[in-house]
């Protein structure tokens, strides 16, 4: 059909339909998000004799190389999931025992906190001790890495940041909690550190302001100790925190504003694995 210049245009449904079809052909197809099915039973069951039953301790950690570090009594073992092999990394004296474990980002080093207040860094490949870090006055129940920085939380209510490249005794010390620091987690980008304590509080710290104890946010909604912390892998400024028996909630926070975006009642005390599973569930929806 010809349309002469100056004459009014009329709507032509058939022409519009063709235009829409051509537009859809030009647009790239939208990616289809697959529903992730979580297993309902354990893939493997490992014996854990002498595993200390203490909610405030962090006695297991997965490394980038798919190796599980687990503290059993006075010893720490490395279990390789690929070959199901077990190696003894260390054993302490009778008056001491591991209280926390954390892998470095590259999976080559493992940090171990102890009841005696010290922290040791071990080469997980050579099975050799690299350094001993001191500065706390009580047991070290939480650890977290971000590249060359290792943060440790203690029953003395303090957080110490250690630059593992430096031989200085302490890089910086943070004090804001009034109870044991039982949860620590660096964000994926390494710009924010979250800490949870036996005082029912969560603090968010900026890496650029570690020289003082001025936190970015203090989050006060939990009603029990906060040990479980996990940063969202696809929304880097979003944090999940889980409270203990008297709280039983996982809370989702906007780390930029400090506001609670959501609260999930789990009907059980939240551990670190539960908060991490929450992010997988959100991603699968």
UniProtKB/TrEMBL annotation:
WD repeat windows: 174-206
PROSITE patterns assigned: WD_REPEATS_2 (PS50082), WD_REPEATS_REGION (PS50294)
One Pfam match: WD40_CDC20-Fz
Keyword Kinase: no
Entry keywords, A to Z: Cell cycle, Cell division, Mitosis, Repeat, WD repeat
Coiled-coil parts of chain: none
Any one biological process term the GO annotation gives: cell division
Single annotated GO MF: anaphase-promoting complex binding
Ranges of residues in domain CDC20/Fizzy WD40: 46-269
GO CC terms of this entry: anaphase-promoting complex
Entry-linked InterPro entries: Cdc20/Fizzy, WD40/YVTN_repeat-like_dom_sf, WD40_CDC20-Fz, WD40_repeat_dom_sf, WD40_rpt
Family: Belongs to the WD repeat CDC20/Fizzy family.
Protein name, per record: WD domain, G-beta repeat
Organism listed in the record: Musa troglodytarum (fe'i banana)
């Amino acid at each position: 059909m010809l349309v002469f210049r100056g004459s009014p245009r009329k709507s032509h449904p058939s022409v519009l339909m063709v235009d829409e079809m051509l537009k859809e052909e030009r647009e790239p197809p939208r990616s289809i998000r697959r529903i992730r099915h979580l297993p309902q039973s354990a893939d493997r069951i490992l014996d854990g004799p002498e595993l200390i039953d203490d909610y405030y301790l962090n006695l297991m950690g997965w490394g980038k190389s798919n190796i599980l570090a687990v503290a059993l009594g006075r010893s720490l073992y490395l279990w390789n999931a690929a070959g199901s092999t077990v190696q003894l990394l260390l054993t302490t004296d009778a008056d001491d025992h591991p209280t926390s474990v954390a892998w470095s980002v590259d999976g080559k080093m493992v940090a171990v906190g102890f009841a005696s207040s010290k922290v040791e860094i071990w080469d997980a490949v050579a099975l050799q001790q690299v350094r001993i870090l001191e500065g706390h006055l009580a047991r070290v129940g939480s650890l977290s890495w971000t590249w060359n920085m290792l943060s440790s939380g203690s029953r003395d209510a303090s957080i110490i940041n250690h630059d593992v490249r430096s031989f200085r005794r302490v890089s910086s010390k943070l004090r804001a909690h009034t109870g044991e620091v039982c949860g620590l987690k660096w964000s994926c980008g390494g710009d924010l550190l979250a800490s949870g304590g036996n005082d029912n509080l969560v603090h968010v710290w900026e890496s650029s302001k570690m020289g003082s104890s001025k936190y970015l946010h203090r989050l006060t909604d939990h009603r029990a100790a906060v040990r479980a912390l996990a940063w969202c892998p696809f929304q880097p400024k979003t944090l999940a925190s889980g409270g203990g028996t008297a709280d039983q909630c996982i809370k989702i926070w906007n780390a930029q504003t400090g506001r609670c975006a959501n609260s999930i009642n789990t009907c059980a005390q939240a551990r670190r694995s539960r908060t991490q599973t929450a992010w997988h569930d959100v991603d699968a929806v």
